[in-house]
Design goal:
Blueprint: H1 3-14, H2 40-49, H3 52-56, H4 75-93, H5 97-106, H6 115-125, H7 132-143, H8 154-161, H9 172-195, H10 206-212, H11 216-231, H12 241-259, H13 268-284, H14 291-298, H15 303-313, H16 316-327
Helix pairs in contact: 2-5, 4-5, 4-9, 4-11, 5-8, 5-9, 6-13, 7-8, 8-9, 9-11, 9-12, 10-12, 13-15, 13-16, 14-15
């Protein structure tokens, strides 16, 4: 018996009957031999961690564009916090921790530079539209490994696709990531907003603080315990009604005071203009795209999609540098 088969047997003996078992995965888009050491979801996690799109997350905005300070979250640190939240819940509920981790680490691979500002810009200017969850699946299916894709399992792809509020993941592990994403950004975006001097903890309405706590760590602890206690022994991932209402109120509060705050978002209009300009430039100059994107065109992909693939995959720094290279005059060197 291989190491993988021993681990698969352990899952059957230890995990909850509601867990997603590696041996019962709905499979990959392309069949391939099994690894003798790693079950399928562990293998997917490793593929995500080693892919280029994951590495680029370190230079992509979470909330604050190019903040002055070392301790503000990036899209990568957000992703790691989501993963840790999700693994804590999954372990407590005896669900598949490796599936949860793979989905969590991959959930934001489709994000643009400059956070949701970049996403809005591409969605506005591209006639095909742009949505980061769909782009995340396209990234792992089509764009990684120079067009070969990562060939992930159905369950991981489903979790990436459905991680947003409107999503409905088909596995409990996907549902954990969907909630863990919200817990993470409510927790760390409030922490960053306090660090930036935009908010004080006392600004959070008392009716919210009375339910979920008065500090980021209190709220984090409350959310985790509430989900675990209310989901134990159930074929669902749920919160208590009071906590669910308080989470929505906290999210609305964050949108009003942080995500749509003119001080915090003062540079977003510039970022959106930059993204639109890059999209329009490469639509007119397709020949200047890198070879792997030209290959997508030669395979019949719509040019609008391919330009979104290229511009949307950029980091903040690379997008700015590309814009400067195209549009900002350089000193004459003689």
């Amino acid at each position: 018996m291989t190491i993988r088969e021993n681990l698969e047997q352990w899952e059957k003996q230890y995990l909850s009957p509601y867990a997603s078992f590696s041996t019962e995965s709905r499979g990959r888009q392309k069949d391939e031999p099994h690894c003798d050491v790693r079950p399928v979801f562990q293998r997917d996690r490793d593929r995500i961690v080693h892919c280029k799109a994951f590495r680029r997350l370190k230079d992509k905005t979470q909330v604050f564009l190019s903040p002055e300070g070392d301790h503000y979250r990036t899209r990568l640190t957000h992703t790691l916090e989501v993963s840790q939240n999700a693994r804590t819940i999954a372990k407590a509920l005896r669900l598949n921790e490796e599936l949860v981790e793979a989905i969590a680490l991959g959930h934001d691979l489709g994000h643009t530079p400059f956070g949701h500002a970049g996403e809005r810009a591409l969605n506005r200017v591209c006639p095909l539209g742009f949505e980061h969850s769909l782009q995340g699946v396209r990234t792992v299916d089509r764009l990684e490994k120079r067009g070969q894709g990562l060939n992930l399992t159905y369950e991981v792809r489903d979790g990436i696709l459905n991680h947003q509020t409107i999503g409905n993941p088909h596995t409990l592990e996907g549902k954990i990531v969907r909630l863990s994403d919200k817990i993470a950004y409510i927790h760390h975006d409030m922490d960053d907003a306090v660090r930036a001097g935009i908010l004080k903890e006392s600004d959070v309405p008392k009716e919210i603080r009375d339910v979920i706590g008065s500090t980021p760590s209190d709220r984090f602890d409350h959310f985790i315990h509430d989900i675990v206690n209310n989901s134990m022994g159930k074929n669902d991932i749920v919160m208590s009604e009071a906590t669910g209402v308080a989470m929505k109120q906290m999210r609305d509060f964050m949108f009003e005071h942080v995500y749509e705050n003119p001080v915090a978002k003062s540079e977003e209009a510039k970022a959106e203009q930059l993204m639109e300009t890059l999209y329009l430039h490469f639509m007119k100059h397709m020949e200047s795209l890198p070879e792997e994107y030209l290959n997508l065109l030669s395979e019949g992909e719509p040019k609008e999609q391919v330009v979104c693939d290229y511009v949307g995959a950029m980091t903040d720094r690379f997008a700015i540098a590309t814009y400067e290279d195209i549009y900002i005059p350089k000193s004459w060197m003689g």
